[in-house]
Amino acid sequence: MDTILSELLVESDNDLPFGVSLDAGLGEDHNLILCMERWDLESPKYGYVLYAIVDKDDTLLMANRLGIQVEEFPKCLKSRFGTDSGAWVPSRVEALFSELLNFILDCGVRYRLKRV
Taking the chain, what is the end-to-end CA distance rounded to the nearest angstrom? Predict the structure, then answer.
């Protein structure tokens, strides 16, 4: 899924043969997109990408409630939830994805999931 603004929030330790990364970005129509990518070098069939997509209107509503501009979302989520440390285990990255989904719901908006 294409994004115009994107921030890497966190990724698991790159020394493992499998891992997870989590990005936040804005789509071309200014919808919020969270992207969790799981890869497995030894068993690629277990890899996937999971998107959580907040539509444009709900993204604007969320931004207003948080007191930020829509374009600030990726950086806002990076400062609130992200880290530059790559020492996370994959399950911790997946738990952060769940935490972000709950954060979206706590802001009073919905998201849809898409797995590819």
Answer: 10
Asked if residue 1 has pLDDT above 70, the reply is no
- With a cut of 80, say whether residue 29 has pLDDT above it: yes
Question: In the sheet that 32-40 helps form, which strands lie side by side, from edge to edge?
Answer: 5-11, 18-26, 32-40, 48-54, 112-115
DSSP code, position 84: S
Reported as type and span, the H/E element at residue 66 is: helix 56-66
Mean pLDDT of 48-58: 97
- 91 HSE (CA, 13 A, CB side): 0
Q: Where are the beta strands (DSSP E) in the chain?
A: 5-11, 18-26, 32-40, 48-54, 112-115
CA angle, 114 as apex, 34 and 110 as ends, to 5°? 65
Cβ 28 vs Cβ 5: under 8 Å: no
